[in-house]
Amino acid sequence: MKFKALAIAQAVFKRTWLKTLRRPVALTFSLIQPLMWMLFFGFLFHRYSLDEMPAGIRYLDFLVPGICAMTVLFGASQSGIEFIRDMQTRFLDRVLSTPASKTMIIGGKIAADTSRLIIQAFLVLLLGLALGANLQLSALPLFHMAISLILFGIAFCSLSCWIALKAQSQENMATFVHLVNMPMLFTSTALVPSKQMPDWLANIAQFNPLSLVVNNGREALLFANTPSLQSSILPLFIMATLLFLLSSHTLRTVKLN
């Protein structure tokens, strides 16, 4: 039974990747947009002063971890769009009528989406290095950063899938994408240090999960540090677990139009 459940997750994982490669709109959009942000902001603010950072750290160095996390956010927020398409073609109806584990179905999909986002974030990191970012590439801090991005990706892919299952329309999904992405980006430390924000915005940023992921990335890439698991990984793990369970429960109980 265990192997059958894993086979279901593997089949969904493979199907999700194949659909992405055959229709790479989401792939290109969620990758090209962050790359443009890094190019424009990196060169536009290359003289930007980071007073609280040690000497030698430039704005491009500071920006790369933020754009890596931004790439995951933008891609994860579109994860549920595939469910909308499957609803429209009645494919999801047929899948849900089978005895296949609903948890494995959504688990395979989210695993595929998250793996794609981690590859995209890695490509952003390589571009930053190609543009001349001075980054520390130590194994353990990089692994810590990757875990942060994976958990963040799982959390927001799960949230996007939950919204899709509830909304069941592309218009509502588009509203969710626009309402989540930009407010989360501009109320985080992805582009600006918290010490250079207005006090009210800095207070919001410290509770923004994107800020937590960005700060973990900066500790890894700028200082080769690994923050404590309790303060850096545990909150993301709890968020990812709760949102995955929510989306899994919704898939088991959803009534499609």
Descriptive notes:
- This protein has 257 residues and is mostly helical.
- The chain has one domain.
- The chain is 75% helix and 0% strand.
- The chain is built from 12 helices and no strands.
- α6 (102-130) packs across α7 and α7 runs parallel beside α12 (234-253).
- The protein starts with a helix and ends with a helix.
- The model has no long low-confidence stretch (mean pLDDT 86).
Ends: how far apart?
A: 31 Å
> Order of helices and strands, N to C?
HHHHHHHHHHHH
What's the alpha carbon Rg, rounded to whole Å?
A: 19 Å
Q: Based on helices, strands and strand pairing, what is the structural class?
A: mainly alpha
Question: What overall geometry do the principal axes of the alpha carbons give?
Answer: elongated
Biggest sheet, open or closed, and with what strands and sense? none
Question: Helical region count?
Answer: 12
State which percent range the strand residues make up: under 5%
Given as residue ranges, the uncertain stretches (5+ residues, pLDDT < 50) are none
Let me know the number of strands.
Answer: 0
